[in-house]
């Protein structure tokens, strides 16, 4: 953490006062005060639906608050739209990246900005300037190559770099590390900290992971139900208080007992309520029952993948991004074409054709990309949950809406979906949309549940609940659960066994998660690479 003192009396910086934003009369923000000073990193946390994104949208001009003022250096701003915020020096980098993959790095750097900065297009000057920018931020790219050739982590760094060169004085970052892994996270956070220190840019960083937040933030602000519950120097604000504010007193006890509040991924405290026992002898069947058996599977992205997953256990798939984990799940439900090898379900050969066919066979996949692959935005949450199983509620051509509603409610309660469930699902906060998708996957009562980054964007309290739930489904109900996660802590917390992927290969060698550390996992991924 940077050692800077903050001038509490000065008017400098980006200051929001008394911000209120209501949706259909319900306050998402109920009077928020927040200041980001030059050179300061403010870390913003809160439970799913607390109002973090709404606050960012108010500051970036995307949403107009119902009440309150926003000012820079004491001068009130009329944020009539994103352009007005940009003109006032406020840049925002959202989770969904806005750069264009089909253009080159240079073209992206100067997107929409060519004429203003250069009077006329000068390719050489633009390339030189783009090169200087990427070097300054140590982004390893060739400025003449298509941006789409580079991984998400690189694009994320580039997006931040670009935001800073548009005369930005304030940078708003919405969960910038969600799609990154290990080293990339460290690098991004380092870059953000250094940027604030060396250029005096003020940063507002939204992040669910407290260890990341405390690494870089000078000031920590916790939002609860649209109000600031905690605000203060990261040196003095107690993490335990932040965990309690976000997760609630009861859940916080488990998180804190385990000393894992940083990641929000506790292992099960023995004897605690909701405790899930270790896999029983019944689930560890001597006959070696295998629910899912994959042998030498090949697709456009996979070269040779073999593994087996057993009922009553959670199998973690670990590897670097692009190593083949997601691609395996896609192939198993027919989203990618299988070119070679076999898949067996309960001993019988299964040829994946499409997700609906896979689901009928008992294989349900929760995608990582809820925006593109998962949610039906215009429908309410309940309908989103029961969409794949509507046929179960149909009798003589009539839909039993009450039974349907009961089932949807049951699964949404199980996952603590917060927000207006009768409204279109897109009006729920990001974390709550993720919970709706997980509820939908569970409502299908799969025998084999395939999950890609199941807790992406969910808050620390809910994350630990989801982990407990998945272990419960496997250990008590005999489900076969397969989890892909880029977070080592998540894999170690939720999985019983781990297999490692590298360059589209997996040799199927399982290792008990209990015997592994974060370092072991990273080492295994590198060794396999
Ligand atoms: N366009 C909208 N229409 C209706 N309600 C909305 C809309 N946008 C947000 N909300 C509601 O405002 C509240 C705050 O949502 P917001 O997205 O700001 O939360 P968040 O803290 O960013 O959550 P998360 O951690 O899940 O991303 C939620 O109850 C959400 O359902």
From TrEMBL:
The keyword Repeat applies. It comes from the Bacteria. CDD domains: ABC_Carb_Monos_I, ABC_Carb_Monos_II. Keywords: ATP-binding, Nucleotide-binding, Repeat, Transport. Signal peptide: none annotated. Gene3D superfamilies: P-loop containing nucleotide triphosphate hydrolases. Residues 261-287 are annotated as: Disordered. Residues 14-250, 284-528 form the ABC transporter domain. InterPro entries: AAA+_ATPase, ABC_carbohydrate_import_ATPase, ABC_transporter-like_ATP-bd, ABC_transporter-like_CS, P-loop_NTPase. The keyword ATP-binding applies. GO terms for molecular function: ATP binding; ATP hydrolysis activity. PANTHER family: CARBOHYDRATE TRANSPORT ATP-BINDING PROTEIN MG119-RELATED, GALACTOFURANOSE TRANSPORTER ATP-BINDING PROTEIN YTFR. This is Sugar ABC transporter ATP-binding protein.
